[in-house]
Amino acid sequence: MTPLADRLVALLVDMDGTLVDSDAAVERAWTTWAADYAVDRAALLAVAHGTPAARTVRQVRPDLDAAGVARAAAHQLALQYDDLSDVRPAPGALDLVATLTARGVPWAVVTSADSRLAHARLAACAIAPPLVVTADDVAEGKPDPACYLLAAARLGVDPRTCLVVEDSAPGVAAGRAAGAKVAALGAVQADVQIPDLHALVDLLGA
Predict the structure, then answer these.
(1) Cα 161 to Cα 154: distance, rounded to the nearest angstrom
(2) C-alpha distances in angstroms, 148 versus 33, 67, 83?
(3) Diameter over CA atoms, the chain
């Protein structure tokens, strides 16, 4: 096994854009929401990825009070719940799940989506994680580390022995703040760079 696999106790994986390819559905929802709330679409999409809906709403509509933010975030999520037609496993996702299952490696999905959306998308991809931590489980979402700290605690492991897998800067920041090593997809900088989840399976010595 590789040194990375030797040190690995548990894997904590982001959902959207990492384990699940839902980019088109996310963009459709935010595009509709931007029109409904008079927000520039490009500016919105530049900050929306990787954080809970409420945090994004507060950033782009700072004029809204707490109740207004809650309503706006709920509206954005409602646009996504049934938009599953092109949601699919990310490349390598099913191989990764099979490898973790075969090895008995503890793992969890840690997502900025709420519970309903997370379980809908995972079901659409036929992925059934042993643990799912969502925005509903923590007071502050990514880049706050609470979600990753909670996932490690529920798995009964030290977060410093976990590998976090992410595709966004807020997610990488959350994983690092939790004390974990972080692998990132695409151009996002982290401790380990991977082009896709197939590469992660290779790194784990599968």
Answers:
(1) 14
(2) 28, 27, 27
(3) 53
- How far from each other are the two terminal CA atoms of the chain, in whole angstroms? 8
Question: Is the Cβ–Cβ distance between 124 and 80 less than 8 Å?
Answer: no
pLDDT tens digits for the chain (206 residues)?
A: 345 666 789 999 999 999 999 999 999 999 999 999 999 999 998 888 888 899 999 999 999 999 999 999 999 999 999 999 999 999 999 999 999 999 999 999 999 999 999 999 999 999 999 999 999 999 999 999 999 999 999 999 999 999 999 999 999 999 999 999 999 998 899 999 999 999 999 988 74
Give CA 81 to chain center in angstroms: 16
CA 142 to chain centre: 9
- Give the residue numbers annotated as catalytic, written as ranges: 14, 16
The DSSP annotation for 105-165 comes to: --EEEE-SS-HHHHHHHHHHTT---S-EE-GGG-SS-TTSTHHHHHHHHHHTS-GGGEEEE
For residue 161 the two structure tokens come to: 């022995």
Q: Are 86 and 24 in contact (CB under 8 A)?
A: yes
Q: Residue 45 region, left (φ>0) first, then alpha (ψ -120 to 50), else beta?
A: alpha
* Coil vs helix vs strand at 104: coil
